[in-house]
Amino acid sequence: MAGSDPGPAPVRRPRVAAQPTADIVIFTIRSEQLRVLLVRRGKKPYRGMLALPGGFVRPGESLEDTAKRELREETGLNGSGIRLEQLHTYSRPERDPRGRIISTAFLAVMPDPPEVTGASDAREADWVEVEESLWGPNSSLAFDHGEILRHGLEHTRTRLEHTTVATAFCDDLFTITDLRKVYEAVWGYELNPGNFHRKVVDETQGFVLKTDKVRRSGPGKPPALFRRGTADLLYPPMMRGRRTL
């Protein structure tokens, strides 16, 4: 209508053009040590430094698709059967010198994974001890991947308290000693074998199920083999002490 007040002009707010990426923290246990899958970067930035596997999202991909593709391209590891859990999103403006890049990190655990080989823009790939990766003399990781790895470690330690995820580090059949070694590797200190056995077998319902099989590996009474039980949550929880690294 003539003479009507159009009101204030719309305010134009600046928009942030950010690129999404996916990074993957995969833990396993080898030689009773907690290890994480790392690659050595073959391109700038941070060429020659260790980093978590990961990369940019391609058109038509979900974040999970990107994580599994990058895992396959950079390490040769087939991620189709790996259960990925979304860990956290990292969005500090200065986290990547290439620009505003927002990364969603995923977490997974694997029992007895295969050897890996660096490919694509990764010169090398290997299962590296977590303690060495975070606190060793050459512990600096590219980007903010040290922070992501620490978050993944603490999240996994907490999950071992309240869920049955420790069995995901084990083969289908395992001994109680195998399971205790998982807790010791992840938490970073030794546990009392008798107390642990009683807690797992007698006090926590549905954690493990005893089979009619045993492991014959030497003299003496062979230990019984167990498999994962029906529970997902632990009650009562397996609370850790204060000696965790």
From TrEMBL:
Q: Which InterPro entries does the UniProt entry name for this protein?
A: Nudix_hydrolase, NUDIX_hydrolase-like_dom_sf, NUDIX_hydrolase_CS, NUDIX_hydrolase_dom, WH-like_DNA-bd_sf, WH_DNA-bd_sf, WHD_NrtR
Question: Ranges for the Nudix hydrolase domain?
Answer: 17-149
Q: Cross-referenced CDD domains, in alphabetical order?
A: NUDIX_NadM_like (cd18873)
**Has the keyword Hydrolase been applied to this entry?**
yes
Instruction: Name the UniProt key words of this record, in alphabetical order.
Output: Hydrolase
Q: Which family does it belong to?
A: Belongs to the Nudix hydrolase family.
This protein's name: Nudix hydrolase domain-containing protein
